[in-house]
Amino acid sequence: MSEHQHPLSKREQRARAQAYISQLQGETFPNSVRRYLHGERADIKVPVRSIQLHPTKHKDGSLSDNPPLNVYDTSGPYGDPAQQLDVLKGLPKLRLDWITTRNDVEASPVPPFHEIALDEWHTEFSHQPLRAKAGKTVTQLHYARAGIITPEMEYIALRENMGRTEQAQDDGMRRHSGNSFGARTPKVITAEFVRQEVAAGRAIIPANINHPEAEPMIIGRNFKVKVNANIGNSSVTSSIEEEVEKLVWATRWGADTVMDLSTGRRIHQTREWILRNSPVPIGTVPIYQALEKVKGDVSQLNWQVYKDTLLEQAEQGVDYFTIHAGVLKEYVALTAKRVTGIVSRGGAIMAQWCRIYNQQSFLYDHFEEICQLCAAYDISLSLGDGLRPGSIADANDEAQFAELRTLGELTKIAWRYDVQVMIEGPGHVPMQLIEENMTEQLKHCHEAPFYTLGPLTTDIAPGYDHITSGIGAAMIGWYGCAMLCYVTPKEHLGLPNKEDVKQGLIAYTIAAHAADLAKGHPAAQLRDNALSKARYEFRWVDQYNLALDPFTAKAYHDETLGHEGADTE
Amino acid sequence: MSEHQHPLSKREQRARAQAYISQLQGETFPNSVRRYLHGERADIKVPVRSIQLHPTKHKDGSLSDNPPLNVYDTSGPYGDPAQQLDVLKGLPKLRLDWITTRNDVEASPVPPFHEIALDEWHTEFSHQPLRAKAGKTVTQLHYARAGIITPEMEYIALRENMGRTEQAQDDGMRRHSGNSFGARTPKVITAEFVRQEVAAGRAIIPANINHPEAEPMIIGRNFKVKVNANIGNSSVTSSIEEEVEKLVWATRWGADTVMDLSTGRRIHQTREWILRNSPVPIGTVPIYQALEKVKGDVSQLNWQVYKDTLLEQAEQGVDYFTIHAGVLKEYVALTAKRVTGIVSRGGAIMAQWCRIYNQQSFLYDHFEEICQLCAAYDISLSLGDGLRPGSIADANDEAQFAELRTLGELTKIAWRYDVQVMIEGPGHVPMQLIEENMTEQLKHCHEAPFYTLGPLTTDIAPGYDHITSGIGAAMIGWYGCAMLCYVTPKEHLGLPNKEDVKQGLIAYTIAAHAADLAKGHPAAQLRDNALSKARYEFRWVDQYNLALDPFTAKAYHDETLGHEGADTE
After folding, report:
1. pLDDT, tens digit, for every residue of B148-166?
2. CA A462 to mean position of chain CA atoms
């Protein structure tokens, strides 16, 4: 009854990806111009996409201009037609001067994994790992608490304003007050406000000193709601080329951060390619690689293997680590009566380890060492919810909330080390139980930013879980969740391909924007108003170009109505 | 950057639709069995789809059965493999005996429109219009108030229970309490409960005596949340064949009612084809046809043309009419400062008529005559929100709420005539303003069922408005909206084709089910639990078959992982 195109073979997919990344050119959207916002420092220029609009034609034949609309742009150099791109060399090292000028870092000594061969891929990456000088802490939280406004904070202030100080604040159209559930987004974001939010732990700037290619961004409920896209190959699918293609594609379609969840062979090489070419912060789940190192045998995992993995990834430049340190030995029994047990892969690995050795989790026991390591590179912690519910039935149970309270304790420990922290959340939650997730998280985790996977609001639609979860994501974003981890149509069924990445991101940029509107973000409604005005005035091309996906909007219109205009409804 | 297949030509689309409907065979979903639930009367048999499941394999090699899961089935005879189908003859007249046995109807005299030629399409429809005998009221509301439990009510009680009295009430898995915002759905729905809800005006059974082919269903917030699909051709697109194909397709994918919004030529014939072949209630917007009759000239519209149109549609068998009688002359000025003015087509027509003549709306002035006509056929009124907002900016404004209060007055008038009523709602509403729509509707419209279009929670994603609005639909369904009018990916851009109908319905059955879960519908979570259990036990085939769209779930899985099993996450 349903029709699907025959999927490409693995060889075809890889060849297509190789062609895509080798011919990359900076590209923006139709009728959009890449602009840069400037602050007081000459070396800070923040990209925005400026959508150019046609004038309104009045009945008397006169015209009135519609100002261009600036929108937040995650695509980095890939969104700049003037940019020369070469994935073999990687992106420019935007932050390197800022990092070295602070005079608190030094070149790392060369550990063995620096020698992992990349040259069979003919790369020309020029990455030289840095680390904090002895006794120094190099985190944005450390600077914020010391009252220092970093260039990263200045950059973010400009970026979060989305140029709205430059464009008409008042578009003459009605805008609604939000209901922000206690979030407070000022009309104009200053660098000092960014600093205060980071200092308070309410927001994080994931920015490893070894990932200077990334453009600074912030995750916190008093800022624009963010979206993460998961990519990563596995032993059965995908290639490095495809992962780089998905990375570029993800930033084009609005990913604020990307998690590389690769498993299988070439995990180090894949990550190196991703980091050197990523304009957005990169997160990982280090236990995945640690497990590869012990050939998948959980009983062989230990603190040393894990610590080496953290160090390896720290020096490559991973911006945030998902660490399932809240899966305590005593919580495992709480999952016994669940319908779907433990569905977090990291959570399941740690639960199994605890059972094998009848010992407390080595992640929990060594948490302070983890913090010390993160403080030396400015890696943010994303405290994983290893006991998140995997089904509607298991939502908001004692296992989940017991772990959440432990994540709150760990947050305080991390903050003692000036390490930035966010908290991961579920998963699968029916609508009436979503708000409790947010209020419990705020209460037990001291307002550290929340970062949820969906949640899915029903389990009955595999193949459409970007929709089942887009509903929950919009709602929890409204309630205060700072970043939404996308779910693609392939969730529960397979690994996302390039088209799935796009579909997941469209659903989640919708959810994030709906949340910004509902919270009353001062600038969010400008885009809705501009698009609605274009629609009402039959400026079809402007309507497409203001849409999240101009190509699909135009194609759908042309399919039914040809290139002529038609009624709006 | 985005790829779309070249759409079919109009000729190809029509030929494909013709082949589809001429070769129709009753068909159910993979591993599903069409079953019928029986009540006390021999002539009541209610279809359910019974999804057959595989046993659980335990570690010791033993097996334990998983009971089949019954799900609500809107597909009528099209979902029964044993059924002989012929679209030229139409569906069996399921309710005809019930209608005639009540002894309150008679054959209609033959008005001119009975002679509109259908025979160039070679149909063999045997429709003989009925009407109430003089002085009789034949509405389900009338019977309900008189204390009569009709066969329709018995049918609905069985249907709403979805066979859950037959299957294990307790699946052994955790189920959540809902937050129902005042809705009260009993654990077991009795026919007496159905009668009470109809008598109170809190629910309606759209069931024109001239549409005996339709299977009874109910719309009210103390029942399962329903979904409507809009179809209909226009002067530029589609054919009768395609509309019948979309009708069948819509009922297969979960449409509880279908609205035929056809315009252009052959509007009567298209509707006749749809009615004679529809197992679900059909709604229309009669002003569309009235306007065709005066060749699109609004100034030529008048009460007589409109009344004749109502009568024509009443005798064909339309189950509910959308009537924009709340667009009062004095409200039009309230829309002057809107971003998107009046976007409801019916609302715009009536506003224009009021402006031309500077008179009160003839729909408002003749509302009691409309009620008299509806009472003679049991046509439900769907009081249209002609001033619904067409953009986020215009949500919840005075124009919208002024009309809503008038709809409340009209509800009381309709109830005086024993006419069933539901109220239409928006449209475009940011999340923080959705709940107010529901509470205002309940308050001003005396708990008559609410029936909303979405609402879209943002305007920035044309091409994906099934998602922007699926979010709002799930939320307002939770708050108490009784039926959700779907929005397809083509909304604002073009008319939905068959695939769009499916995509819209999947998004909206997700929204309706998420709402049922959140309200605490006693049986909703059975399906989530069954699917989650299948997922956890790696019963892949069961997971597909329990999904809303088994075909897509399986295709996505096979695309990545081949036909072998794999990890759940």
Report:
1. 999 999 999 999 997 666 5
2. 23
**Rounded Cα distance, B370 and B362, in Å:** 11
Query: If you average pLDDT over residues B471-498, what whole number do you get?
Result: 97
Look up the ipTM and state it.
0.96
A432 contacts on B by Cβ (under 8 Å) = 176, 178-179, 478, 517-520
Q: Count the Cβ atoms, other than its own, within 10 Å of residue A149.
A: 15
- HEC assignment per residue over A320-343: EEEECCCCCHHHHHHHCCCCCCCC
**CA A358, CA B469: separation in Å to the nearest integer?**
49
Q: Model's pTM, two decimal places?
A: 0.96
- pLDDT per position as a tens digit, B520-553: 998 899 999 999 999 999 999 999 999 999 999 9
Q: What sign does the CA torsion over B190, B194, B196, B197 have?
A: positive
Tell me if chain B has a CB within 8 Å of the CB of A427: no
Q: Which helix (H) or strand (E) holds B385?
A: none
Burial of A65 from C-beta contacts in 10 A (0-12 / 13-18 / 19+):
exposed
What is the length of chain B? 569
The Cα–Cα gap between A425 and A341 comes to 16
**Hey, which residues 3-32 in chain B have their CB within 8 Å of chain A?**
4-5, 7, 27
Residues, chain A: 569
| pLDDT of B164 | 65
CB-based contact B78:B248 (threshold 8 Å): yes
Whether B556 and chain A come into contact, CB under 8 Å, resolves to: yes
CA–CA distance, A229 with A484 (Å, rounded to integer): 9
Q: Which residue has the tokens 């073979």?
A: A9
B465 to chain A: closest CA residue: A510
B432 contacts in chain A (CB < 8 Å): 176, 178-179, 478, 517-520
Neighbours of B430 (CB within 10 A): 31
Beta-carbon count within 10 A of A358 CB: 7
State in Å, rounded, how far the first CA of chain B is from the last one: 30
In chain B, the residue whose alpha carbon lies closest to the alpha carbon of A1 is B551
The residues facing A383 across adjacent strands are: A323, A423
| Sign of the alpha-carbon torsion through A461, A467, A471, A472 | positive
pLDDT value at residue B6: 61
CA-wise closest residue to B278 among B261, B256, B262:
B256
Query: With a cut of 70, which residues of chain A have pLDDT below it?
Result: 1-7, 111-115, 119, 163-170, 235-238, 561-569
Q: A-contacting residues of B 456-475, CB under 8 Å?
A: 457-464, 466-468, 470-471, 474-475
Q: Do A393 and B471 touch (CB under 8 A)?
A: no
Angle, alpha carbons A42-A47-A50 (nearest 5°):
125
- The C-alpha atoms of residue A256 and residue B2 are separated, in whole angstroms, by 20
B321, B419 contact by CB (below 8 A): no
Residues of B in contact with A493 (CB under 8 A): 553, 556-557, 560-561
Cross-chain Cβ contact B531/A470 below 8 Å: no
Please spell the DSSP secondary structure of A446-467, one letter per residue: TTPPEEEE--BS-SS-TT-HHH
**What tens digit of pLDDT does each residue of A288-297 get?**
999 999 999 9
